[in-house]
Amino acid sequence: MGKFSNDIRELLEGVGGKENIVTVSHCATRLRFVLADPKKADVGKIEKIKSVRGTFTQAGQFQVIIGNEVSVFYNELIKETGLKESSKEEAKKAGRQNMNFLQRLISHLAEIFAPIIPAIVVGGLILGFRNVIGDIAFFEDGSKTLTEVSQFWAGVHHFLWLIGEAIFFFLPVGITWSIAKKMGTTQILGIVLGITLVSPQLLNAYAVAGGAEPPVWDFGFTQIKMIGYQAQVIPAMLAGFILSYLEIKIRKITPEYISMIVVPFFALVPTVLIAHVVVGPIGWRIGSVISNVVYSGLTSAVGWLFAAVFGFFYAPLVITGLHHMTNAIDLQLMSEFGGTNLWPMIALSNIAQGSAVLAIIFINRNKPEKEEEKQVSIPATISCYLGVTEPAMFGINLKYVYPFFAAMIGSALAGVFSVATGVMANSIGVGGLPGILSIQPQFMLRFAVAMLIAIVVPFTLTVVFSKNNLFVKNTKSIAS
């Protein structure tokens, strides 16, 4: 008999029996069930199980928070039930059966950006470091930067641009590769397609935007402008999906013995042509419109209102999965304006959720009956401050409601301050407290103040709401 045998039996009953489970996998803290009929899950019954810290549904998956021992629980579950082990990717695919069209669209978008986020985070940190040593005058009475007084640091500054350029200028290569990988098509073709969008023989997209006249491919009867799409997101996404669509369709009608020759040729060549004639220019225009609308909204006279709405509703967006859409907007802002004023608000929302959980820990500090809850709340706080909010939101804040609401208010106020003071980030970066490393140096002090707001306001409001039973879901389970 395993450590969690009784809990496993109760959990199986709670999810509607073994026969209701399509797949099950796990991540760092959660079991991820795809259920044949999600309505059969008895959430109230499941959340009463001793080892369960909370539940939520996301991306078509019914997720049960177990905590740090989730791998042990999962292994016992598989052993005792005979269920087939599934990877997170398999669970995601199966989970789409429970999603509507918009949810499936957002899920696909998230899967495209997830593999390239680590590179973008590194790139943002590198750009931030280069700005610190190359743009801020710390020396000789504030008249010179570190690169101006040290040849070594000047060399470091120059060298690091090699990495920054590879990540951001050639971002379309990563996007088209990621789409090919996600669609199950030939990944090297995705890489080649991306390179054709940023090839050095093409006039740089930024030069074209500055008014430079691009060279052309002259076919006699027509000419095509040789424009590059460096750092552009939407043109790369559109081209990537066209390539995958063509490859899948052509492969279906091509005999296996000639597919190695026919499929790559008739998928890649038309796609590159379409990318430079149609979807490239259209995608560039769409991206410019989106980024200009967002940037104008955040820098206008009513930018504070835009910031308040985004800061307040970002956490609920995370619950729905719609927050993944902001990655594309952030990247487009970076390509158009050399930075993003949207990302700082996301980092502040992370901090606010963690601060609300910190307040719960403070409220329940002398309550022995809450000791088990600390197994979720303490790691969840740390996780939030490092940029991952799901354990905090689903494990604590949504369980009680009022800390979640307090965090939303704190996030909104911090976001308003960030936008009102013009804070810009170099790029998407590490969320939470380390997010300050992605902020452009001249705005770091202002962002530090915004971070303080995101810590103090949610903490204070959570305590106040608790003592006054405001926005409380279950007064028996919290401080009086």
Automatic annotation (TrEMBL):
GO molecular function per UniProt: kinase activity; protein-N(PI)-phosphohistidine-sugar phosphotransferase activity; protein-phosphocysteine-trehalose phosphotransferase system transporter activity; trehalose transmembrane transporter activity
A cellular component annotation (GO) from this entry: plasma membrane
Keyword Transmembrane helix: yes
Gene3D superfamilies xref list: Glucose permease domain IIB (3.30.1360.60)
Membrane topology according to the record: Multi-pass membrane protein
Residue spans crossing the bilayer: 105-129, 159-180, 187-207, 227-246, 258-282, 302-322, 400-423, 443-465
GO biological process terms held by the UniProt record: phosphoenolpyruvate-dependent sugar phosphotransferase system
Residues covered by the PTS EIIB type-1 domain: 5-87
Catalytic residues as annotated in Swiss-Prot or TrEMBL: C27 (phosphocysteine intermediate)
Assigned keywords, A-Z: Cell membrane, Kinase, Membrane, Phosphotransferase system, Sugar transport, Transferase, Transmembrane, Transmembrane helix, Transport
Record domain PTS EIIC type-1: where: 107-480
Record localization: Cell membrane
NCBIfam families: EIIB_glc (TIGR00826), PRK11007.1 (NF008236), PTS-IIBC-Tre (TIGR01992)
Protein name: PTS system, trehalose-specific IIC component
Organism: Anaerobranca gottschalkii DSM 13577
